[in-house]
Hints:
The protein is an all-alpha fold. It is 84% helix and 0% strand. Helix 2 packs across helix 3, helix 2 packs parallel to helix 6 and helix 5 runs antiparallel to helix 6.
Amino acid sequence: MASAYKAYNAFLTRRPMLAQCTTAALLFGAGDVIAQQAIEPRGINYDPIRTLRLATYGGCFFGPPIAKWFDFLNRLHFRSPARGIVYKTFLDQTLMAPLAVGWFFGWMSVLEGKPTEISERVSTNYVPTVMRNWAVFIPSQIVNFSFVPPSYRFVFIGVVSLFWNTYLSAVNARQQPPVEVEKLEEAAIIAAIE
């Protein structure tokens, strides 16, 4: 375990953006696997393409702007550490969190080949998702900005995000209920036979 930590720390030091994007891709992918197997229980109906979409989003569309966002927040300095924690958390949760939620539903629609659904997904899921985000990430960011060294803040939030990504994956999947489609097809076949 110590050698894995050292290797990751070296990777983070040498190539911070690549390390953070790789971390985001792995955590988004893992969150989707958990959503599919533990929340939805899909079992053998596991959808690896869905996991690949989430990992792609995490590594390519979420990781880079969030890594830069944390670089920006880490450069902000305040006379009072307590004031810094409050302001950084406030900035993160009033500027970045609302943008990231809309960004997620928009990119998921595009990656699924359904860009016409962006407006519907955002209007249906945006407010409840932002509210739940605040319940999770306001306390998490207070801990993050209080105790975590700046170079590990992205990683800390990434670990918290594993559970959040599981939630996001499940919410996004609700937009395309395959089981209901199968039930409708079965009902149509039965009605045609009768």
